[in-house]
Structure formats: structure tokens, C-alpha cells
Write a structure and sequence with these properties.
globular; alpha+beta; DUF3405; transmembrane; Major facilitator superfamily transporter; seven-stranded mixed beta sheet; three-stranded antiparallel beta sheet; 724 residues
Length: 724
Amino acid sequence: MAARNSNSRVPIGRKIDPLLPYSIISEKTKKPRLRMRSLLGHCHYRRVITWLLAVGFLITLVVIKSRNSGYNVGGYLGKGSKTQAPIATATVVNSNGETVVMLTGDMDGDGKLETVPEDEYVTDDEKKEALEQLQKMPWLKFPHLDGYFHGLRTIVSKVNLQPEYPNTTDQAPLPSPAMSDHVPKPQRYNPYNHGSEVKTCYLDAKKTVPAPDLYAYNGVPQHMPDPGIGSYKLLGIRDDICFDRFGRYGPYGLGYSRAHGGLDTGLDTESVGSETVWAETGKIDYTEVNWAEAQDSCYQSNKHRFAEVDPATGELQAPTEKMGRIAVVIRTYTGFKWTELAVLNFRALINELSLKSGGEYQVHFLMQVRNIDEPIWSDKWTVQRIINDNVPAEFRGLVSLWSEPQMRLMYPGRFGETIENPSGADIHGIYRSAHFPLQVFALQHPEYEHFWNWEMDMRYLGSYYEFFDRLGKWAAKQPRTLLWERSARYYIPAYHGSWENFTDAVQKDTVASGRAPIFGPLSFDGKAQLRHDEWGQTMMPASCGVDADRSKCGVGEEADIITLNPLFDTEQSGWVFADDATGYKTPPPVAAPLSRLPVLADGVFAPHPVFLDRAWYPFSEIDAAFNAGRDHSTSGPGSPFDQLNEHNHKGTSWYFNSEFAGLLWRRWLGYAQMDGRGKGGGRAEQGHERGGKTEELDTTSSGRLCMRGVLVHPIKFEHPSEKP
């Protein structure tokens, strides 16, 4: 969960893959004439001829054998009969020097002889299993997209990009794009719009090492798909650039050894041209970096820009022309396994959000102490011991601890009976009340105006600042009228069209439903007074007055909460925690609808870009799967968060059960993956292994991957050696 609260060559992947539907020959192999002597003297052609002769010999042998014996190979099979198994095999060498086992027989029971690679042969049992999977997960019928896996040598400008998907003129997957003879160079990327008032921040106490920049390429790989859900343009995030692993993480220690201050990671991947990212700064030595000191120093240099806590009241000063600061609170726990790639990720997050912004953000780790017998409130030595045992030295100054016993002390009230508790967990635990420790943290840190709640297994392929900043600015522009209704739906550009069309559709659905729109907190029996009620104030801004233009209501105010998944009504939604509510006197259905109503009113779901691993056609299929709830939303019966429907998210780049997110992330990092692509399709961990150093170094490869900024989750492991 993440939310902001207040308070001309052919890439090797296509060329050698026997499962993909295209067979494209490199321009280098196209000769107007070939003499027999040249033909046999060239290893590439000799292998092809060997293959053809072997297959031809096999077919001839099988035909002769079938005639002499009177046995009809793969002959007519009566109803209920099984497909005749292949009766002959041959091992040949393909044009890439690989050994391939060829099968000859009637593969599909049509009475005709076929010769196919062994890994394309599908038995009846396999067909049955595939059919069962298809019935459970209909999205498996859609073809895989290849456009994510083209590399640096296929980069084109945005104006020349032909997205593989969504595409109304050509059917995916598209043929592999032409390749350039050279790899372009990345450029320093600056998503900040700061003036001279922002003072430079440094990694070291002596202020000799300025916070580094990340690097991006101008353009994106040809056929790179556009998001199936969400939008770059809508949020103001650039989609005409891409990031490779070295431009993204090289400034933070990827690609060089510990002896030079790096992390010894990325050395086992292809790295042609990576030196560019260190040309100006050199390879930064992170051995002695202390991120807490670096953040505090940055804030002190820029504190003239920010609102401060009033010493008299202990609360943040009333809104002024000065900015409010934002805390990014990362949830972690004792026992979390820190890896080199995790360290890289959080170095990037701190540098890009805090140091490069001049202290606009401050990053903290909120760590759960799982051992409930640890007296974390007793003395500072116990606290420091726990931190030292569980957190790398460079991050230790950023950590705050909490535990369930501590939350019981902070929230001692009688919560009453729980309607349903599927997890069996305590109400004070992280599983059911992650907001408890976050609220305590907020009370302890009045200097922050907003709080982002972040998780350890989330990654962003792009600038963290650009993502956080653009989401916040977009959310502030949203009118409160029908805000909750829009936030209960996925925005699907290929289906809905423009955002204005989407907004109109939401209004029509709301009117047709006969339900009153949500417009601020509702009253219900037993509701306790909120602070504004006690003070006789309203939660609504002046722009929402009786005579005000409703289309301008709330425009320009900071959102109370920004979410990265829709805000949906859990009643009858099938979500596993739909009835996990406590403190109400009445059972469902009266209590259940209240689960969607937070204390705050300005709640926004930000439609960030989400990629699909397959070409969903027609585009209405996406809407039918992800907005299948009540009134074409994610709420109520038919919700995509129903346990029976959550499988639809497996091929997306963002959801807790996604298979595609981790696969795409590891391929981008340069590691080979079983990606399920090919004839008949498949899922992650199925199909053929693709990518990795050998493939990316091949002269026919398009090189390492380059992706637009996209949020991926969950990332349960990164380096292949970490695989559970």
C-alpha cells in the first residue's frame, strides 16, 4: 500500500526464438547471389543446410516407413481418441548454433505430417491444463507484448514511436524494430523547477560531493507499449524519455566495486557505454555517507523556504507563502533482509526526494519490532541495538521503532467485537492497523504537513521526485464534485478516451445509479464528533460554498489523501478484508458501507501509469475486468479486488499479486528471466529464459532495456541468487 496523507538489425530475442510467430533474417544475411562454395564455407549457412537436410531426410524416412508398414502415421482418430504422439526425432543445430530436438508426426490429429521443435509440441494433457487455466483466467487468451524488451539500439524519438499497444492498426506482437549501429548516450535528467532560492545539498559533511543527478535517454525503444491503465500526460510525467539501469542507479553505486565506494552489484551484467554516468562526478564513494546528517544539513541550508512549528502551540504555522514539508515514511520490520539492490533503491529515493529538492521531502524508516518482549521505550541503548542489528549503517539515523505492545498503550480503547477477522491478527498489529504507528509518528513530527506511506518492495523506474511531485500537483487541481466517484474507477485511456470523456461517463453512471454522490463526511448513528465539529467549523473550503461554482469546489487545495489504487466501497465486494470492521454496534449491512468513509474528505486516486503484459483486445475487455463493480466502478459486487477476480492483476505492473512487475524489473536490471512469451502464451516462470548478459552482449541484440518511469510492485527478490 502506498498513499500520501495529510496532517536495421533484429534483436536476438525475436530472431532466435522458435516460439514467436516471426522469422526475420538480418540484413547482413541478405545476399543477391550465393555460390555453392561460399554457401558451404559459411558456418551460418552450413548449419541451416544441415538442419534442412536432416528434417527432409526425417520426413522421407517416416513417409517410406508408413507406406511399407501400412501404418497411417497420425491417421484419422475417432471421437474420443488421443492425438498420435510423434514417431521420429532428430537433433539438429539451428542457425544460432543451438541444439534443437525436432519431432515428426501428426501433432494435431488432422492426418497431416508435421515437423516441429520439441518444445512446441503440446500433448492432450497439456492442452487440457491450458484450457482449465484459460477458463479461470480468460486474460491468458491475449497475446504477449514484446515491446518492453527491446533495448537501447532501438531508441527512437517520441514522434516516431509506434506503440505495440494500445494499437488499433496492427495486431500484437509486432515484428522486431530496426536497430541502430551505435548505442546513444544518456543525458543528465532534471525534473526540478527550482530557482536560485534552492541551495545545493551535499552527500558529505564537508560539502565537497554534491547530490548526484540521474541520467535518461532522449526517446524510448521502438514499439514500447503505452500504459493500459493510467496516463503519463494526465499527471504531467514525461513519457518521451527512458532510463536504463546504469543511468538510474549508476550514480548510487551500481556497476562498480566496493573498493571504489560502490556495492559490487551490476558487475555481472552487460555494461557497454555505462561510463557516461560517471564522466563528470567520478564513481562516488558511499562508504562514509550518513543520510540522516545529509538530510538535516540540506534542510538547514534551505529552511528559509519552509513553514515551521510555532513554539507556542507546538503545531505547524498557519498556511503562508512558505512551503509545507513532506515526510516519506517507509514501513519496514526487524528481520528484513537488506540487499545491495535495496540499498541502491533507498539511496536513490533519499537523494532525489530530499537532497535534490532542497529539503522539500524528508525520508524516514518506521520499523516494527516483531519481538513483543523488547522494551523499546525503556532505554536508548536497547533502541540503538535493535537498529544496528537490522539496518545498514548509512540509514540508521533515519529509523523510528514501534511495536504492538506500544500501540496498545497508545490506543487503549475498547474496540468491541470485530465483524470478521480473516487474518486472525490483533487490532493493534500491522496487518489490520498500519495507520496506528503512522499516526503516532505524525504526532511526534509536527514539522511535516503531509506524509507518504511507502513500502520496502516498491520500485520506480524513473525520478522519484517527478513521480511524487506530479501526483501531488495533479491531485490539488481536482474538484471535489464527484471526486470520490472518479477515484473509485480505473482510467483506461484506450477505452475512455480523454479525461474529460472519462469524467462525463462517471457523471452519467452516478446519475443512472440513483445514489447520492459522496460530498464530505456523512452522518450516521453513533458517529463521534470530529475536531471541526467541536470547533463549529466546516471541512469544506470557501470554494465549495452554497453559491459557488461546483466545478471549482476544492480546486487548488492540497489533497487529504492520495492513493495508488482506487478508493472503493467494500460492501459485497468480495475483498478479503471487506468486513474487517470493529467498534460498531450493528452488524452488516449497516456498518459495512462506512468502511469506505475516512475522516478526511478530499480523497484522490491518482491514475498513475500501469503496464499490461498482454494485448487486451478489444479495449473494453480491460474495463470489463477492472471496472466490473457496481455502476462501472471497482466497488461492490464484481469488484476487481474480489478474491475471485484478483488474478486479473497478475499481468499488470502494479498490484500485490502481480507476476509481471518482478519479471519486468529483473529483466531491466539485466538478469535472464522465464517470461512466458511465445506460442500459446504462458505466465511468469514459464516458457523460455530470455535476457541476461550473454543475450545483451550478442552483436545481434538490441542491448539492455530502457524503460519509461513506472511504478512496479511487488518486488520480492531482485538478483537471481535471492530467489526464494
